[in-house]
Amino acid sequence: MKKEVEKFAKSFGKKEKVLNYASNIYQLTRPSKVGEVMALIRECQPRALEEWERCYFEKAYTKTKDPIKITKETLDELGERLYAKITEVVIPEWTAAFQDITLEDCKEYIYEVTIVRTFDGFLLEKSVINDGLAKIFSDVEFIESDPELDHAGDIDYIGKVGDKAFGIQIKPITANSNFANYKVTERMSKSFQDFEEKYGGKVFVIFSARTGNKKDIVNKEIIADIKKEIERLKKLG
What we know:
53% of the residues lie in helices and 14% in strands. The chain contains 8 helices and 5 strands; from the N terminus they run H-H-H-H-H-H-E-E-E-H-E-E-H. It is globular and about 50 Å long.
């Protein structure tokens, strides 16, 4: 019988969506603010919440050019900044949006998401692969992810390297968004892990934006990471 994992996290109820939205938009829980928490907890291997808390405040530093020691006061200050952003920016913006939304907006939005944005996304994927990655890595065969596979919703393309493969997820970046805000969800992380176990390669998230009539890769540093992964997979045979 599967053992149920105990949960310690507090539920914020209806407030959760607002807190999560503002925290992500203003990057208040990024490694640059709170350190690399997942890497640190794996290093600590705590058996109790109190042990993890103690280890965190002993070893956590911001992931910045000049790392700063993180204390309880650091987290409190981030909480104060979150409150200020919500009350001074988020609530006024959302209130104005709620007041302006019309029935026609809702109808047009559903149409746009279903038809127009799906088409834009389709063209974006094709351009990133055919005009970008396929030309850079000419010895790799890029194929669309099989819609029947469990990971298909999270992985758009597979790059085949011998009998191994790595995954590609393509995300569009609009003028009003920043890829630094993007965070892989727990579900997606599990999907990426399942893919790696099956195919041997990692999954890379590529952010793309339109420049004129072209689709350019925004996080260009990912190219070097993909190259390293291809070399690693070739060595595995």
